[in-house]
Amino acid sequence: MSLFPKDFLWGGATAANQYEGAYKEAGKGLSVQDVTPKGGLPEPGNTSPLITEEPTADNLKLQGIDFYHRYKEDIALFAQMGFKVYRTSIAWTRIFPNGDEEEPNQAGLEFYDNLFDELAKYGIEPLVTLSHYETPLHLARKYNGWASRDLIAFYERYVRTVFERYKDKVKYWLTFNEVNSVLHAPFMSGGITSPVEDLSKQDLYQAVHHELVASALATKVGHQINPDFKIGCMVLAMPAYPMTPKPEDVLAARQFENQNYLFSDLHARGRYPAYIRRFFKENQIEIQFAPGDEDLLAQHTVDFISFSYYMSVVQAHNPEAYSSGQGNVLGGLQNPYLPSSEWGWQIDPIGLRLVLNAFYDRYQLPLFIVENGLGAKDVLVEGPDGPTVEDDYRIDYLKQHLLQVAQALEDGVEVWGYTSWGCIDLVSASTAQMSKRYGFIYVDRNDDGSGSLNRYKKKSFGWYQKVIETNGQSLYED
């Protein structure tokens, strides 16, 4: 018998800026993603990502995979796989093109009406991220993004608009994607234009505070508009192991994890944890609270915790003595006991079980795995039913991780669902590559922008279809 509950929400996840395309159609404004043609992470040798004045033709995200025009075709494929839930995001700049307008863009609202109606046709629940690395570019350049408290009011207007519009179409909401990533990718995650080397810890953590207050405010507004809404936070989960049993290494791992727990602690417990006070004191950080901030955080905590999980890392008190991990957004050292993906992300299925247990022990709130997957350079080959990808490596990755989810369920952890990242191939947020593929569906587009954009089912498509159909029972079959 499957260990997965009968109402487990199986599905996939995407983000508007990585697959919608149509970056300036129907009144859409520019987001920070439209001016980062090499992705949102620093290039080797730099501290900040490459940011252009205007969108450039080499930015694959401008066209994405043209989901904006092909959403019916793609949703039909998701339904064929048996999705119970589909995680996507609303592009803030489709609703408020600059971010600070008084009135929303009706054409943008209508697009998401049509999208949610199409999902409803197949009985697929939308799980919607309100801000997925898509800060309006105007807000970034005029206000320095979330470094400014002004963004709280703009964000409130935006979320109130979409909550009211879709209150009968969407039940599950996430306030910010991987909110803790702002510490490491301030422009991509927080629209903060200050160069990293000039950004003080005071300004960075004040921006964090603004986002967390805005998240609590969104939770308050959402529950007022529809008490049945389930509103969650979304964090980047990355467990840290000590390099050795040496107490100093154990302490280094704990301190690394506390940086991330800060965000889920505030979302779930509603107050700054005691352990952060020393860090603030030692770094001359004094968070400026506006009247009402403290009560807002305390009284409007989230209904569930969601997270991405791709890898674990290792920490040591003397990191210079070891090899750094490759591709880690949050940093960390390489684990000599784990294999790595083509992009250097270490593969650790048991780490997912550890994360699930740690979050549940800490908060006793339902959990939702909203990103997990393997980026790989897939090769399209001719199969008996047409072009396909023999992605057994992806099947093995997902199977091993899902088996650990089952173990966590047996441990007593409450998990609502699982949405595999990039269920259809899309443009990488971190590198802006198309060749870093995650999907069950191959999209014919290349890193140079060429390709037909035709969709082809990979081998993993049928595998995941069976996993969902059997509610996970097929994971135990050879």
Automatic annotation (TrEMBL):
Family matches, as Gene3D superfamilies: Glycosidases
Domain of life: Bacteria
InterPro entries for the chain: GH, GH_1_N_CS, Glyco_hydro_1, Glyco_hydro_1_AS
Region (Disordered): 34-53
A Pfam family assignment: Glyco_hydro_1
UniProt keyword annotations, A-Z: Glycosidase, Hydrolase
Residues the record marks as active site: 371
NCBIfam families noted in UniProt: PRK09593.1, PRK09852.1
Homology family: Belongs to the glycosyl hydrolase 1 family.
Name of the featured protein: 6-phospho-beta-glucosidase
